[in-house]
Every structure is written in structure tokens, then in C-alpha cells.
Amino acid sequence: MTLFSPDLYRNFAIGFVAGTLMVGAASFDHISDLISPPAQAAQSFEAPQPSDDFWVIEE
Fold first, then answer.
1. I want to staple 50 with a disulfide (CB 3.0 to 4.6 A). Which of 24, 42, 54, 58 is the partner?
2. Cα separation, 15 vs 52, whole angstroms
3. How far is CA 56 from CA 47, 48, 49, 53, in A?
4. DSSP readout, the chain?
5. d(Cα 36, Cα 30) in Å, to the nearest integer?
6. CA 56, 47, 37 angle in degrees (round to 5)?
7. pTM (2 decimals)?
8. Cα–Cα distance for residue pair 17/24, rounded to 1 Å
């Protein structure tokens, strides 16, 4: 028996796919609440402007 036989790679691939499906199924309920349609997600963003306290007026 060799160390890096095709069975090793196949078992890693099967384990990776199974783990991915389990994590995806466990987090699907949490992710679906965070996704919103693009029309609702797109909002205009206006950068905050400095207040008048920060303006330096030189005389």
C-alpha cells in the first residue's frame, strides 16, 4: 500500500464535499435573512461633511 494512493485523494474529496454541504445547510437560514434584493440594497451614500467647528478661518 502506498502512502498517496488514489483512495486517499478520493476520500479527501468526498469529505470536503460532505463538509461543505453540512456547513452550507447549517448556515442557510442565517444567510437568507441577510440577502436583500438589489433594488433595496442600493442606496445613495453621502459622505459625512465636517462640522463648522473644524473650519479654520485665517484673518
1. 54
2. 60
3. 20, 18, 15, 8
4. --TT-HHHHHHHHHHHHHHHHHHHHHHHHHHHHH---HHHH-----PPPPPGGG-----
5. 13
6. 175
7. 0.46
8. 10
11 CB-near residues (< 8 Å, 6+ apart): none
Q: Tell me how many degrees the CA angle 30-17-22 measures, rounded to the nearest 5.
A: 30
4-57 residue pLDDT tens:
788 889 999 999 999 999 988 887 766 656 665 555 555 667 777 777 777 777
Backbone φ and ψ of 51, nearest 5°: -75, 170
